[in-house]
Design a protein that fits this description.
Blueprint lengths: L4 E6 L13 H10 L2 E5 L8 H11 L6 E4 L10 H10 L2 E3 L3 E5 L3 E5 L18 H21 L6 E5 L26 H7 L3 E4 L8 E3 L5 E4 L2 H8 L4 E5 L7 E2 L10
Parallel strand pairs: 1-2, 2-3, 3-4, 6-7, 7-8, 8-10
Antiparallel strand pairs: 1-11, 5-6, 9-10, 11-12
Helix pairs in contact: 2-3, 4-5
C-alpha cells in the first residue's frame, strides 16, 4: 500500500511585481512541511508578465514538485501564454486539461474551470447563442478534466481547479455572486473517474470544505480564506490511500503565519 502524501495547497496568490519577498517565506515553509505544492489559480493580480516573473523567482526555490492552474485574473491582460511559459521555466507544471505526477505516487489533474451555477440552478444550453456559448465553456472545462483524470495511473490522485465544483465551498459569499464562482459540472468527472480530494480557490469569502455528490472532499484554499481561518497562506492535506479519508494535519497550522 502506498504511503500517504503530504500536499500543500493554496490559491489566489494575486502576486504583484513588487512583492519579491512575500512568497519566498511561503516556499521555505512548503519545503519544510510538504512533499508537493499545488496552486489553484489567480497566480497573478493583473495578469501581466512582470507579476509572473516575481512569482517564478520565488517558486524556483522550491525543493518539491509544483503544479498549478490559471485563474480569471491571469487572463486579464491577455498575456496568459507568456505567464505559462515563465512559470514552466521555473519548473511549475501549469495544467489545462493535463496531469502531473509527483514522486510516482500522486497524480494531479488540473483545469481552470468556469462558472455556470450549481445543482438545480445550473445554467442550461437553451436560448440565445451567447447563453449556449457560456454553458459550452463550462462543459469544455469538465471534458478536459475528464480526459486528464482518465489518464492517471498512480496510487493517489487529486484534482486542482480555480472555480468551485460544489456550492458548499462558496457559502459565505454574496448570494448573487455564487453562481459565477463555479459549477456543479466540474464535480461530474471527479465522481465518475475518482479522486481523493479536490482543491480550488476563487471564493475568497467562502467555506473551507465541502463534498461532491459522491463524497469526495473539496477544499477551498483561497489564500484570503486560509489567512482568516488559520493565519496561514497555505494548507497541508495528507492524501491517504483511496480507502481512507484525506487528513488535514492540524498541527501544520501551529507554526504561525507565513
Amino acid at each position: 500500500m502506498a504511503r500517504p502524501f503530504r500536499l500543500a495547497a493554496l490559491g489566489d496568490l494575486h502576486c504583484r511585481e513588487d512583492e519579491h519577498g512575500r512568497f519566498r517565506e511561503v516556499v521555505k515553509a512548503v519545503n519544510d512541511e510538504a512533499e508537493g505544492l499545488v496552486l489553484c489559480g489567480d497566480l497573478t493580480d493583473r495578469g501581466v508578465v512582470d507579476e509572473a516573473r516575481t512569482l517564478a523567482e520565488a517558486l524556483s526555490l522550491l525543493r518539491v514538485p509544483c503544479a498549478a492552474v490559471l485563474g480569471n485574473h491571469d487572463f486579464e491582460a491577455g498575456q496568459q501564454r507568456e505567464i505559462v511559459r515563465i512559470l514552466r521555466e521555473a519548473k511549475v507544471a501549469v495544467l489545462d486539461g493535463e496531469y502531473a505526477v509527483f514522486d510516482k505516487r500522486l497524480g494531479v489533474a488540473g483545469v481552470k474551470g468556469f462558472a455556470c451555477g450549481f445543482d438545480k440552478g445550473t445554467l442550461q444550453a437553451f436560448g440565445e447563442p451567447a447563453v449556449k456559448a457560456f454553458v459550452q465553456e463550462a462543459v469544455n472545462e469538465a471534458l478536459k478534466l475528464e480526459a486528464a483524470l482518465g489518464q492517471i495511473d498512480t496510487p493517489h490522485r487529486v484534482v486542482i481547479m480555480h472555480y468551485a465544483p460544489v456550492a458548499a465551498t462558496t457559502e459565505g459569499e454574496v448570494p448573487e455572486l455564487r453562481p459565477f464562482l463555479g459549477t456543479s459540472r466540474l464535480a461530474t468527472p471527479v465522481d465518475a473517474f475518482g479522486a481523493q480530494a479536490v482543491f480550488h480557490g476563487h471564493a475568497h469569502h467562502g467555506t473551507l470544505e465541502g463534498r461532491t455528490p459522491r463524497g469526495v472532499p473539496v477544499y477551498n484554499v483561497a489564500m484570503p480564506l486560509l489567512r482568516k481561518a488559520f493565519d496561514r497562506r497555505f494548507r497541508v492535506i495528507e492524501i491517504a490511500p483511496p480507502e481512507a479519508e484525506p487528513f488535514a494535519s492540524e498541527h501544520t497550522y501551529a507554526s504561525g503565519p507565513h
